[in-house]
Design goal:
9 helices, mainly alpha, globular, 176 residues, single chain
C-alpha cells in the first residue's frame, strides 16, 4: 500500500536537521583562525563539538550544560586569551542556532577577556562579530555602534606598532 503515511512516519523518526552554518559564522571562524592559528584548548567547546556530540538534541539542555562546564573550566585557568577564544566559540555556536542576542553577549564576554589580555586585534574582531550578531537580531543601531568601534580599533592598529604576538611572526628585521 503506497500512501503518504509511511513517509510521514519516517520523517517523524528522523533526528532534527543540524542548522546550516551561516556564511557570517564561517567568515568569523576564518578570522579567528588568523588571529589564533593554534586549535582551541580541549576544554573549549566549538560548533563541531556540538554537531558531533549532540546530533539528536542540537542546542538543547545537554549541550547547554556542556557549554557551561567548558566556561567554568577555562575561566578557572585564568588565561584571558584562551578564555576569549572559548567565549568567542560559544558565540559562534549561538549564532549558528540563530540565537543572535546570546551570540552578541558571548562576543561581548570574549571582548572583555581580550581587553584584560591587552589584545587589540582580537578586541576588534569581537566588536565586529557582536555587530554581525546584533544586525541579524535586527538591532541595527547597536550593530552600527559595534562596527564603528571595530573600525576605530582597526585604524588604530594600522597606524601603531604591532602587538608582541605580531612581532614574533614578522618577517621584517628588527630595528634593534
Amino acid at each position: 500500500m503506497v500512501d503518504g503515511s509511511a513517509t510521514t512516519n519516517d520523517n517523524a523518526r528522523r533526528p532534527p536537521a543540524s542548522p546550516q552554518r551561516p556564511r557570517a559564522v564561517s567568515d568569523l571562524e576564518v578570522l579567528l583562525s588568523v588571529l589564533f592559528p593554534d586549535p582551541p584548548a580541549l576544554d573549549c567547546i566549538t560548533i563541531d563539538d556540538i554537531l558531533r556530540r549532540y546530533r539528536l538534541t542540537g542546542l538543547g539542555a545537554p549541550a547547554l550544560t556542556a557549554i557551561e562546564q567548558s566556561q567554568r573550566i577555562v575561566r578557572a585557568r585564568g588565561d584571558y586569551h584562551q578564555l576569549g577564544v572559548c567565549e568567542f566559540h560559544i558565540g559562534l555556536i549561538y549564532f549558528t542556532w540563530a540565537d543572535h542576542r546570546a551570540a552578541a553577549n558571548q562576543f561581548l564576554l570574549a571582548r572583555q577577556s581580550w581587553t584584560l589580555a591587552s589584545d587589540a586585534s582580537a578586541k576588534c574582531l569581537a566588536h565586529f562579530a557582536q555587530g554581525l550578531a546584533l544586525a541579524d537580531a535586527q538591532h541595527y543601531e547597536p550593530a552600527m555602534l559595534q562596527y564603528g568601534r571595530a573600525e576605530r580599533l582597526l585604524s588604530c592598529l594600522l597606524y601603531t606598532s604591532p602587538s608582541p604576538r605580531d612581532r614574533t611572526r614578522s618577517r621584517m628585521p628588527s630595528s634593534a
